[in-house]
What does this fold into?
Amino acid sequence: MRDVVIVGCGIVGAAAAYELSKYKLSVTVLEKENDVAAGATKANSAIIHAGYDPQAGSLMAKLNVRGAELAKELCKNLDIPHNQCGAMVLAFSPKEKVVLEELLQNGNTNGVPELKILSKEQCLELEPNLNLNVFAALHIPTTMIVSPWEYALALTETAVRNGVKLELECEVTAIDKIDGGYRIHTTQGEICTRYILNAAGLAADTVHNLAAEKAFEITPDRGEYYLLDKSEGMRVGHVVFQCPNEHGKGVLIAPTVHGNLIVGPSNGRTPSIDDVSTTTQGLTYVMETARKAVPTIDFRANIRNFAGNRAKTGCNDFIIGQAHGADRFINLAGIQSPGLSAAPAIAEMAAELLENSGLVLHRKTCFHNERKVVRLHKLTPDEKAKLVKSDPAYGRIICRCEVVSEGEIRDALNSPIPPRSVDAAKRRCGAGMGRCQGGFCSPLVLEMLAKHYNCGPTEIPQDGAGTYILTSETKIGGAV
Ligand SMILES: Cc1cc2nc3c(=O)[nH]c(=O)nc-3n(C[C@H](O)[C@H](O)[C@H](O)COP(=O)(O)OP(=O)(O)OC[C@H]3O[C@@H](n4cnc5c(N)ncnc54)[C@H](O)[C@@H]3O)c2cc1C
It folds into this structure.
């Protein structure tokens, strides 16, 4: 019998695993996909919001501000790409400036530091590419950008290093109440546990309903994006928002930690939680709205479109707490934006809830809280030369666009959570993230994965289970 099973390994499950790995507990994370961060956590705006906009007094506000504070330390300790570039919310009229003043007041109540209203001149000084009609802006210097999937990966890897078990491709299909806990049925067998944390993202309602009476429903709401080439990466230096609307923070323009420009998201119901297709309508809306803030964005430099689904519940707050009628089953549900920012604080709250419902938390005397990743493109020429001399694999470049070496992909394959797909290698090392989107390096990455797993190239997927790139090993001329 495990002490705690966490269902789902997005940023919330990852943060909970990390938090619980500080204690003398047996913890298992069950994730239905073949990698961590496969849901909303890999397809969002990648912003650690400071916490100026969630309604003062809400759980969201409290956990956002605390989570953003914790994120700074985590990013430093666990070598997670991040940048505190700050944000601006633009107003284009005196009426919109009133909204900024309300946001300022709300942010001050939430305890967000250094908020300030900027004049038109100050806005243009900070961001010369803004629309000249800008009237004022709220400046939020503590906003950060981050690599969201690497954030989840770093937390999970650290949890695994500290004794947590991670089961990938392990979907929870049924839950039975047993003496002192639960028996969980999965696609890989059964597992018994004293406590369950439900961090299943868009499927948190389905997982809840396996153990308790229906209490909430998640409706997926799609957000679509453009990811522009690095040639557009300097178009803005801050995360640039416009005044929020009934759909939330609206369309933003932001640099990414990888040097690109991200523009989005759209909003609108999507037919299923797994439908992350993009639409002409959604992308046109994003383009037209973004141009109001920064008219010169060159959308011809687009290298990828993608979409992520928000876990909307109709309640404007997170749903965190013990499920009614299911002792020791704790929901971390309805985690829509700012869930990425709030995750470490949600995890702290989860530990508190577990303790309040009887789980004894004893700190481990030895907790490994560091992580270091070699990133060739970040090194100086001297550092590169030294590294390549000591290990020539770092000198063999696999991805030319992002300058990723064989050594870095090999390191990922030897890490606590090795990539099982070409895209999983991309999320770890950046190979395939650049202008050609893997056109050159994908076959080489695929070959490395096949060699590592001692299987044929046809068995390596592009991303999720079944997304095979090669379907047959037939050679030209017909011989196999
Ligand atoms: C368009 C968009 C933009 C956003 N922008 C931001 C932002 O800039 N900043 C911010 O703070 N937040 C942002 N968010 C919100 C943030 O992305 C989410 O709050 C966060 O990623 C939710 O994490 P999660 O772990 O709850 O869910 P997920 O990341 O979806 O993870 C849930 C996991 O559970 C797994 N799972 C589901 N069912 C089962 C099962 N039966 N058995 C086992 N595993 C299961 C799934 O495979 C998945 O991996 C945005 C969200 C969207 C959609």
Q: What stands out?
A: The chain is about 30% helix and 20% strand. The first helix runs from residue 11 to 20.
